[in-house]
Amino acid sequence: MIRTLRWVGGLLILFGLLLAGSWFIEPLRELWPLIFDLPLPIRIGLVVAAIGLIVVMATILQERRRSDPDSTAEHLGGDE
């Protein structure tokens, strides 16, 4: 499950960066007809990349908690 979530997170990061990067390539920019103050591809790309980063970080934290719960409680100041 964690491996799948990491793949999804990585793909979301890649997709978001490609989407935001499409603004800098002239022919791809023409695919985005509705560009106002802040370019829409950059906004969408950053949101998708941020979601991917959150998914990857959540899976890393989940794996660390499962691997050694005592160590995690120690670092976070858990109940003694």
Summarize this structure briefly:
75% of the residues lie in helices and 0% in strands.
How does this model look, in words?
The protein is mainly α and 80 residues long. The chain has one domain (2-74). It is built from 4 helices and no strands. The chain has helices at residues 2-21, 26-29, 40-67, 69-76.
Strands, total number: 0
Task: Identify the overall geometry.
Answer: elongated
Oligomer: single chain
Please mark out the parts with pLDDT under 50 across 5 or more consecutive residues, or reply none: none
Query: What fraction strand?
Result: under 5%
Q: What percent of residues adopt helix (DSSP H or I)? A: over 70%
* Succession of helices and strands: HHHH
What's the helix count?
A: 4
- Largest pleated sheet: none
Structural class: mainly alpha
Summarize model confidence as the mean pLDDT: 74
